[in-house]
Write a structure and sequence with these properties.
alpha+beta; Ribosomal Protein S5, domain 2; five-stranded mixed β-sheet; Prenylated flavin chaperone LpdD-like domain-containing protein; LpdD_chaperone-like
């Protein structure tokens, strides 16, 4: 694992809006909102609308996270947030992406156990 200077690594937070899910994924040294993804489960497929703010790189990762969540729970999902580390190296970015997937899958498992 790459050293990222004691940064708050990755956090996932779930807010229920009725039966729909609002998920916030953030971390690094500068959590922020870098992308917003809306996922809808219709006719056995996930449809996506997304927006990545200029100069932010989270959109592609967040699209994939939202697809997995939406397909797994088969419900409307909004996922937003941002992960930032000043002057991150390619290795640090790769490590953060891997940490995000690990944290997100554990978060999903916890939610699945709560719903089950």
């Amino acid at each position: 694992m790459t050293d990222i200077g004691g940064a708050n690594v990755i956090s996932c937070e779930l807010n229920r809006v009725g039966v729909d899910d609002l998920i916030i994924v953030s971390g690094g040294t500068g959590p922020h909102i870098g992308a917003v993804v809306i996922a809808d489960y219709t006719d056995s497929e996930v449809k996506i609308i997304s927006y990545g703010f200029p100069n932010h790189k989270e959109e592609d990762l967040f699209i994939e996270l939202a697809k997995v969540w939406c397909h797994t729970f088969q419900q409307k999902t909004v996922l937003l947030g941002g992960i930032h580390i000043d002057n991150a190296t390619k290795a640090q970015i790769e490590d953060l992406v891997n940490q995000t997937w690990d944290k997100f899958f554990q978060f999903m498992l916890d939610q699945k156990n709560c719903k089950g």
